[in-house]
């Protein structure tokens, strides 16, 4: 990992790539009036609009482009067999020679997960904070990629073509998160990334409200702000409140403690370690992502661990049960996660046993509720005591609620506002919040993925849209599974498959053998002999009709067999399995 800094506090400036922080021009209006109509600042979201996840935003001025974040999303239930969903980055491939860099706000998968797939198509340097790039470097090793990675710290100014980009410290549910002030010839844009305002953060690094206020005083053209928690009133609780809860729970526990959390929530893991150390417990990590992320955090100094506290998961049997804490993945009920495998007695090193205390230190992501409660039920059946968010303060969000968002709007005082990072209900509620604060409706824009926002001296407007959408990752395949394949998978999952095998003479073109029927996911053949026999008769009759009409090309024969058999099966069963005719020439 290339590091342009000697340490976090003393940036090393090389050439004109990094500059000292400076105040933006005092008025965006002045900037706007001095440029011709052909000079446009474009902001183009390729992901993160009307959805949660796969955040990616393009900033463009003339022939200079940089990309803010490069995230993925996990598939919904109807995306059968899909592993990962990433943004459609066709626009970036078409403009690859203009891309100056990829800027990262923080290290969550919904902001960095698409990097390996994008970097295989586009050669661009990556800019991010130390922990963010540490997590990216781990990901790059898995994909055997070696991009140029440049470490930045809040307060530096990165120059990429016509843009000057300044990271600003913010709090989130992962360490080293930043917002950005993006200064262009058209004015300054503030992009918050994911954030909350925590006055007592675990690492002491508070959201830099002073810098937001300075930017607002100097003049901000546009604000792009996180909308994830905008439907919730009040303030998001401090992460430190979770630590107090852990300490209380650990103090009174007399059995093994298993805590499930997001691997990337380093502050949460730190508090678990602190509570364990205070109660003379050893800590073991379980789950591939948990082991990988904590290893990076330990190496970079983001986790402070007392000596002899960490043990290997394979060594837990050497210690009394009341001296153990296991930190694991699986807080969202993922089928292959470590916690789920423990609950199902499929984990290689340990399984849940009667008396264990299991803490789910997260809230279910919308859509995951059923999976989470399935795991909770299984844990309770095993005799474990389970504590989750509705029972105790074992989780707080990393996203700003309404009052925190109001504060950022008030400090930044943007001319234009674009809510980002949320489904439509979140974007629209954030629009209403801005209206309540006195912003004019004409200056608020709700965008969709692929929408272009254009800024010039005449103001802001929607421009021509660019290609956008979802690219599906299935195994090693990128984009080779589309709507037609998914439709077939859905069809197979709902109605099953019938394969019709027929042998035809190569010399006479007549039926020699068959038809033989193979059923998969439709009916059990041995228990449906009458149906199968009727299907064979229907096929034979249809083939005979075709032969009598001198129809011998296989495409026509297959189509006739498929249509006739489909009608027969639907009339007999009111079901429509996929039918696959296989003709062999003998």
TrEMBL record:
Biased segments, Low complexity type: 1-10
Keyword Lipid biosynthesis among record annotations: no
Polar residues: bias regions: 25-37
The enzyme's E.C. designation: 3.1.-.-
All copies of domain Metallo-beta-lactamase, residue ranges: 53-246
Biased composition (Basic residues): 11-24
Cellular location(s): Cytoplasm
Region (Disordered): 1-37
Predominant location category: cytoplasm
Keyword annotations of the record: Cytoplasm, Endonuclease, Exonuclease, Hydrolase, Metal-binding, Nuclease, RNA-binding, rRNA processing, Zinc
GO MF term (any one): hydrolase activity
Residues that coordinate or bind substrate: 395-399
Known function: An RNase that has 5'-3' exonuclease and possibly endonuclease activity. Involved in maturation of rRNA and in some organisms also mRNA maturation and/or decay.
HAMAP family in UniProt: RNase_J_bact
Subunit structure comment from the entry: Homodimer, may be a subunit of the RNA degradosome.
NCBIfam families linked: MG423
Protein family membership: Belongs to the metallo-beta-lactamase superfamily. RNA-metabolizing metallo-beta-lactamase-like family. Bacterial RNase J subfamily.
Protein known as: Ribonuclease J
Gene source species: Fusibacter tunisiensis
Organism lineage string: Bacteria, Bacillati, Bacillota, Clostridia, Eubacteriales
The gene coding this protein: rnj
């Amino acid at each position: 990992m290339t590091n342009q800094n000697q340490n976090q506090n003393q940036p090393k400036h090389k050439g004109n790539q990094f500059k000292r922080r400076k105040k933006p021009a005092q008025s965006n209006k002045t900037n706007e009036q001095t440029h011709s109509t052909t000079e446009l600042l474009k902001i183009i979201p390729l992901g993160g609009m009307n959805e949660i996840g796969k955040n990616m935003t393009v900033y463009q001025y003339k022939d200079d482009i940089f990309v803010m974040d490069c995230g993925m999303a996990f598939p919904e239930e109807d995306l059968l067999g899909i592993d990962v969903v990433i943004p459609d980055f066709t626009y970036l491939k078409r403009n690859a020679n203009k891309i100056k860099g990829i800027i990262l706000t923080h290290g969550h998968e919904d902001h960095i997960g698409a990097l390996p797939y994008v970097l295989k198509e586009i050669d661009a340097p990556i800019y991010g904070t130390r922990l963010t790039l540490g997590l990216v470097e781990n990901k790059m090793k898995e994909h055997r990629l070696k991009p140029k990675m440049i470490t930045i710290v809040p307060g530096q100014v990165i120059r990429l073509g016509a843009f000057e980009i300044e990271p600003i410290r913010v709090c989130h549910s992962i360490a080293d998160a930043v917002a950005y002030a993006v200064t262009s010839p058209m004015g300054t844009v503030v992009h918050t990334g994911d954030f909350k305002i925590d006055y007592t953060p675990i690492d002491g690094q508070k959201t830099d409200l002073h810098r937001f206020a300075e930017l607002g005083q100097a003049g901000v053209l546009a604000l792009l702000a996180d909308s994830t928690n905008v439907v919730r009133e009040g303030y998001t609780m401090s992460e430190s409140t979770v630590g107090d809860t852990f300490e209380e729970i650990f103090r009174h526990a007399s059995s093994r403690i298993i805590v499930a959390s997001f691997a990337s929530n380093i502050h949460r893991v730190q508090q678990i370690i602190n509570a364990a150390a205070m109660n003379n417990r050893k800590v073991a990590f379980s789950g591939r992502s948990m082991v990988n992320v904590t290893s990076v955090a330990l190496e970079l100094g983001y986790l402070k661990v007392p000596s002899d506290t960490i043990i290997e998961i394979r060594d837990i049997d050497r210690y009394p049960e009341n001296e153990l804490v296991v930190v694991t993945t699986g807080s969202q009920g993922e089928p292959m996660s470590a916690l789920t495998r423990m609950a199902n007695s499929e984990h290689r090193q340990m399984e849940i046993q009667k008396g264990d205390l299991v803490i789910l230190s997260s809230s279910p992501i919308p859509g995951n509720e059923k999976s989470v409660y399935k795991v909770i039920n299984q844990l309770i059946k095993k005799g474990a005591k389970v504590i989750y968010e509705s029972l105790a303060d074992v989780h707080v969000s990393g996203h700003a609620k309404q009052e925190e968002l109001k504060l950022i709007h008030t400090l930044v005082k943007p001319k234009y506002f674009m809510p980002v990072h949320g489904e439509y209900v979140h974007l629209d509620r954030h629009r209403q919040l801005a209206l309540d604060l006195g912003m004019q409706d004409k200056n608020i824009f709700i965008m969709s993925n692929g929408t272009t926002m254009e800024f010039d001296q005449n103001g802001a407007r929607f421009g021509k849209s660019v290609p956008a959408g979802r690219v599906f990752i299935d195994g090693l395949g990128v984009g080779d599974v589309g709507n037609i394949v998914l439709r077939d998978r859905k069809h197979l999952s709902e109605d099953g498959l019938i394969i019709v095998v027929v042998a035809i003479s190569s010399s006479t073109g007549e039926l020699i053998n068959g038809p033989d029927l193979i059923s998969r996911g439709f009916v059990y053949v041995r228990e449906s002999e009458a149906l199968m026999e009727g299907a064979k008769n229907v096929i034979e009759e249809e083939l005979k009709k075709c032969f009598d009409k001198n129809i011998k090309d296989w495409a026509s024969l297959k189509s006739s067999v498929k249509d006739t058999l489909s009608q027969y099966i639907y009339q007999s069963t009111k079901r429509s399995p996929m039918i696959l005719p296989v003709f062999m020439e003998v």
